[in-house]
């Protein structure tokens, strides 16, 4: 039986047999101390990874094997890194906008999951005591122009999605879908991430008017939380993803579930009721048969017990990483909260720029070391920009709300080269790598 990774390479016309990659070895970082077997590519520009083939990326991943065994063929059975059922309480969540790094061919946008595979070698692996988890920004089709890029000032929000309609053309390589299904493409990504020692998850919205339910030969209808059929579709879509290897779900606007603090709610449409969300999260766990899922609620960190009882694992944005000692003190106060903890922010999806590299580095230092014991670490939240700085005329929130191509000649390579900063971004990536190298031994 062919495993998803091997099947993907064959579908792409690439040979699934491997040998150690010298390019990877030359650019390899290692963790320090007891983490010396943990490896990744650092001091890098994303373009250097994205212009490579998927086979090159898998070759890099195998070369970086923590077990220091080189596999000439990708293993058939891959297990998720085992940090116990409560791993999400300690994790670093790193959201990568897979739509932004997708292939831009003229006005079309596609193959974001292949770009994510290419970036995997440059994501630092998990530490000895806690996991790094990649959150994918988009999996389902978006409402405003799925499969297309638009001008930098034209809305193409990632926060509006379609359910019951398969997976986004921004993400899946539909040109090979007859040879490897969208589900198998996502499974290949998860297998490769797990081999890298990483957990994976996806962003999900809950604002009713930001979702459409699709039916064949009928008009799309706006999602309705009072419609039991719509609720069932929502649950089943999430369960499908968990069964493909994802283990975390980032819930947009979770703070306001059940009408809480809706004076600050900026989403569009009704939200689920509190007991309804309890049921939904319970059912995703039950139907997937997984007790180790992590549910992260955006800004759900004002009332710790409220969100713990809802079934959440972590809440974002309770404190920034600007004050190391404040974070370490909060970690100490929360050390007996083992099911749920408030999180530390480096950057969130609403970030519109303005932080210097030094401030970002200080925040990353804080989230990686702001505790007395690694077992008491608080969860943290980062974005693409915190590993790979974006070009100066865009920002994290902008590429969530729009989907511009920065290509000057209509090619994916030109978009990748121009989406990120150049030498200063490479130096920033080097300095982030040095922080992780120290942290992974804890």
Polypeptide structure, described:
The protein is of the alpha/beta class and 442 residues long. Helices cover 32% and strands 14% of the residues. It is built from 14 helices and 15 strands. The chain has helices at residues 4-11, 22-26, 46-50, 54-63, 112-119, 182-195, 228-243, 274-288, 304-310, 324-333, 357-369, 396-401, 412-419, 423-439; strands at residues 28-30, 39-41, 92-96, 103-105, 108-110, 132-136, 161-163, 199-204, 211-213, 221-222, 248-251, 294-297, 314-320, 341-345, 380-383. The strands form 4 sheets. An 8-stranded parallel beta barrel has the order 3-6-8-11-12-13-14-15. The chain has a 3-stranded mixed sheet with strand order 7-9-10, with helices on one face. It has a two-stranded antiparallel sheet with strand order 1-2. α1 (4-11) crosses α6 (182-195) and α7 (228-243) crosses α8. It starts with a helix and ends with a helix.
Distance between the termini: 38 Å
| Physical arrangement of strands within the biggest beta sheet | 3-6-8-11-12-13-14-15
Described by the principal axes of the CA atoms, the overall outline is globular
Strand percentage:
5-15%
Elements, N to C (H/E):
HHEEHHEEEHEEHEEEHEHEHEHEHEHHH
Considering DSSP H and I runs of 4 or more, what fraction of the residues is helical? 25-40%
Return Rg in Å: 20 Å
Strand runs, count: 15
Q: What structural class do you assign from the helix and strand content?
A: alpha/beta
Uncertain segments are none
Largest sheet: 8 strands, parallel, barrel
User: What is the number of helical segments per DSSP (H or I, 4+ residues)?
Assistant: 14
Average predicted confidence as pLDDT? 96
